[in-house]
Specification:
single chain, 65 residues, mainly beta, 3-stranded antiparallel β-sheet, 1 helix, 9% helix, globular
C-alpha cells in the first residue's frame, strides 16, 4: 500500500496526501483507511476496470473503508 495517500470513497482513485478533493470526481470524501490497489492503464480493455466501473486510467484502491 502506498502510505501517505488518500483514496476517494466515491470512485476509489488514489490521490496525493495533500489533496482536498478527488482529482477524478471532485468529491471531498477522502480517506486514509484503504487497502490494496490496482493500476489500470487501458480501462476500455480491462475486465477489472469494468467490474470496478472505472473509465479513466489511474491507480485505484481495492478496499475502501
Amino acid at each position: 500500500m502506498a502510505t501517505n495517500r488518500l483514496v476517494c470513497r466515491e470512485c476509489h482513485l488514489v490521490n496525493d496526501a495533500d489533496s482536498e478533493t478527488c482529482d477524478s470526481c471532485a468529491s471531498s470524501s477522502l480517506t486514509e483507511d484503504w487497502a490494496g490497489y490496482v493500476v489500470i492503464a487501458h480501462p476500455e480493455e480491462s475486465d477489472i476496470a469494468t467490474e470496478m466501473q472505472v473509465t479513466e486510467p489511474g491507480a485505484y484502491a481495492l478496499k475502501v473503508r
